[in-house]
Amino acid sequence: MSASRYRNNNTINNYLETPIFPSQAELDNVPTIQIIATQFDKLDSLAFKHLGDGRYWWIIAIFNDIEFGMAGFSPTEATILKIPTDLDAVLRLF
């Protein structure tokens, strides 16, 4: 029987855990509004305006299938984005 030398290291174990994302059906159950983003909007500023904290930019990215690696994401003129209206419901999914 082998034992991991990392089994009691919480920092490494937390890092190694695979994140679990909610299913599309779970995301679809969260109420959303649609907004029309302009070319000047950024995800963090939209998150601040609609979710109360710019650090929730990733929620808007998930709801709109925007890749996380696109740090410089800029919507084109008149891009329609879904914004969840119940932040607590979203956070419970993660």
Determine the mean pLDDT. 83
Task: Estimate percent helicity.
Answer: 25-40%
Approximate strand percentage? 5-15%
Tally of distinct domains: 1
Biggest beta sheet summary: 2 strands, antiparallel
* Shape designation: globular
Spatial strand arrangement across the major sheet? 1-2
- Termini separation (Å)? 34 Å
Q: How many beta-strand runs? A: 2
Structural class: alpha+beta
Radius of gyration from the alpha-carbon trace, in angstroms: 17 Å
User: What is the H/E order?
Assistant: HHEHHEH
- Unreliably modeled segments: none
- DSSP helix count? 5
Overall description:
By secondary structure, this protein is α+β, with helices and mostly antiparallel strands. The chain has one domain (21-93). Helices cover 37% and strands 13% of the residues. It has 5 helices and 2 strands; from the N terminus they run H-H-E-H-H-E-H. A two-stranded antiparallel ribbon has the order 1-2. Helix 3 (43-51) packs across helix 4 (57-63). The longest helix is centred in the middle third of the chain and has 9 residues, at 43-51. It is globular, with a radius of gyration of 17 Å. The two termini are 34 Å apart. The mean pLDDT is 83.
